[in-house]
Amino acid sequence: MRSPSLVGMIASLRGTVLEALGTTLVVDVHGVGYAVTVTPDHALSVRSGEEVLVHTAMVVREDDMSLFGFPDRERLEVFDLLRGVTGVGPKSAMGVLAALAPEEIAAAVSNDDDAVFRRVSGIGPKTAKLIVVSLTGKLIAVRTSAPRPTARGADVLVALVGLGYQERAAQAVLDDVLAARPDERQTAVLLRAALAALGPQTVR
């Protein structure tokens, strides 16, 4: 059960990255290390020792208190909208944002295309349809933002293993993705393609 008085208590963090691995950032703010759940491409976009500003949503339940972080307010707002959909918890909302950029989410909702959300691990047909219905008219201001380029392939594999996929299966799928997209250099695009191809069944 959420405690309304605590939700939103930590709205952002500015500090030094102590660790960026898989889906976790550890940010040192005046000597206190905050563990923040982020998307894999967000974790890949920062390095240890770098100063960052992370926009956060604090989710408090009876037996858990978690911080979810985003590189900009746009993604935070989409996360909050997704969490408002029946059947979509914070982890599922992060899964959607890991697989789809905000502009892709906005386009799918605008086109009444729930199939896009059904391809996200943990999102079933009923929930996918609810996302489209619930978010209709609420994503008009979503802007287009270009993903940050990074080393081709290597960072994607690290992210997939960090998410719990078996390295051998992840590497095989990644090889296919790289072969199919020889000119693609954006880690986020390659990661989303690999996640779509792997699916939830290969997670250990």
From TrEMBL:
SUPFAM superfamilies: DNA helicase RuvA subunit, C-terminal domain, Nucleic acid-binding proteins, RuvA domain 2-like. It comes from the Bacteria. The keyword Electron transport does not apply. Pfam families: HHH_5, RuvA_C, RuvA_N. Residues 72-149 are annotated as: Domain II. It is found in: Cytoplasm. Residues 155-204 are annotated as: Domain III. InterPro entries: DNA_helicase_Holl-junc_RuvA_I, Hlx-hairpin-Hlx_DNA-bd_motif, NA-bd_OB-fold, RuvA, RuvA_2-like, RuvA_C, RuvA_C_sf. Keywords: Cytoplasm, DNA damage, DNA recombination, DNA repair, DNA-binding. Residues 80-99, 115-134 form the Helix-hairpin-helix DNA-binding motif class domain. Belongs to the RuvA family. Homotetramer. Forms an RuvA(8)-RuvB(12)-Holliday junction (HJ) complex. HJ DNA is sandwiched between 2 RuvA tetramers; dsDNA enters through RuvA and exits via RuvB. An RuvB hexamer assembles on each DNA strand where it exits the tetramer. Each RuvB hexamer is contacted by two RuvA subunits (via domain III) on 2 adjacent RuvB subunits; this complex drives branch migration. In the full resolvosome a probable DNA-RuvA(4)-RuvB(12)-RuvC(2) complex forms which resolves the HJ. Has three domains with a flexible linker between the domains II and III and assumes an 'L' shape. Domain III is highly mobile and contacts RuvB. HAMAP family: DNA_HJ_migration_RuvA (MF_00031). The RuvA-RuvB-RuvC complex processes Holliday junction (HJ) DNA during genetic recombination and DNA repair, while the RuvA-RuvB complex plays an important role in the rescue of blocked DNA replication forks via replication fork reversal (RFR). RuvA specifically binds to HJ cruciform DNA, conferring on it an open structure. The RuvB hexamer acts as an ATP-dependent pump, pulling dsDNA into and through the RuvAB complex. HJ branch migration allows RuvC to scan DNA until it finds its consensus sequence, where it cleaves and resolves the cruciform DNA. This is Holliday junction branch migration complex subunit RuvA. It comes from Amnibacterium soli.
